[in-house]
């Protein structure tokens, strides 16, 4: 489970930052779906805003969002607003109009965005003619052809690259600084596709400051664009969940907060995360024993462990792994006399998590009801390393007992501390965690973590967490050079943030969803080991 709220953040980065420029206040004109249907269906993220001065005033002087985008993207967006949206001739037609900023998979070494918008239905004449007549020397417009498509190259003084603009339907426009994305947009025929993005209710839509749409199944290609490994294991289950989300922005001066609904798509193969939608939200306590060196984590919570075990067995059956699982457990029973699935399932608690530290140590932390009862069975299927540490003799036990998220532990070492089963890939990782546990070197011993945690929901079923300071070395290794350079050096940038969290809270077989990303403050306790 490696790399995602990270990646998601980098993606939300470019999309959400545009919030600095737009607000949604029940804009007149076309309904959202009329404009959004023109956005290519491979969009991973779409941010919707309305061109409203009130929003600019709310964020005036606030670096909350510009820290995410970085200086180059901020400069480009600022120029578009100044020279296009605020152009004296065009401004009356763009006021309060919805603007959609979408992120798509690309072959480029940076994440670019596609802008899609419409003008008021009362607009008469040509956007480009109006712009040419009023832009002055700061904007140079050249008509160009791409195949049989007409578009315009707009060169704005002070920018390093041109902006491409096209009218894809009467009074609906698309634009991008990326030649690749504008080509994709002008050649997209929505009538040949049935894809629609999840919509908020009309009341929610009208009251939202901004909206972020998430197309989960299209996140994987974006991650491949950003990471050296084409299949990074950060939040692996999250990337393939067949779902969409619509999240509305809540204004706060020191944090980016969004909440809304993640809706599972029917008639699609279920993923690991589908298993938690039928559980009730659980109060989260396991994070209280995460080591202070935690870089990122994925936590799972179930109100009914028995039902989870049953649902996991059904999922394993559908995925074709049931026979291998049964063969393994039969072998273990024959060779050791231990019914490991029954022994483990009988003590499984409500919470379990996978944690990666800034030293790239990987830990599974699993709550059990009776650690002393479980310990002899675990030792019987292991080779003893010490009195309290053993290594599993058999492969893939964690995967079969707890599912996909724990597949990174093949033949792990284990120890039991109180009523927590701890897994790791080396004995030294277990000893390091034992030191953190015994000496109370936990994240929640820092003021910054507690301030951040106070902004989160107390209950969830799946929770992703990332600590940006502890992620520096992980990013340096795993991100492609251009993306890592932006993370390490942009000022303002991600180093201005403390952490981010993405919580999925089961509701009516879908997920209520919270996203929070908070600016950093100085910790009262160091996070060194």
Describe the protein.
Helices cover 32% and strands 27% of the residues. The strands form 2 sheets. The protein has a 20-stranded antiparallel sheet, with helices on both faces. A two-stranded antiparallel sheet has the order 11-19. A hairpin with a 2-residue loop joins β21 (497-507) and β22. With 529 residues, the chain is an alpha+beta fold. The protein has 2 domains: 29-197, no CATH class; 270-519, no CATH class. The protein is elongated.
How many alpha or pi helices?
20
Could you give the distance between the termini? Answer: 23 Å
β-strand amount: 25-35%
Count of strand segments: 22
Class of secondary structure makeup:
alpha+beta
From the alpha carbons, calculate the radius of gyration and give it in angstroms.
Answer: 25 Å
Overall outline:
elongated
Biggest sheet layout: 20 strands, antiparallel
Query: What's the number of domains?
Result: 2
Protein name: DUF3352 domain-containing protein
Organism: Mucilaginibacter polytrichastri
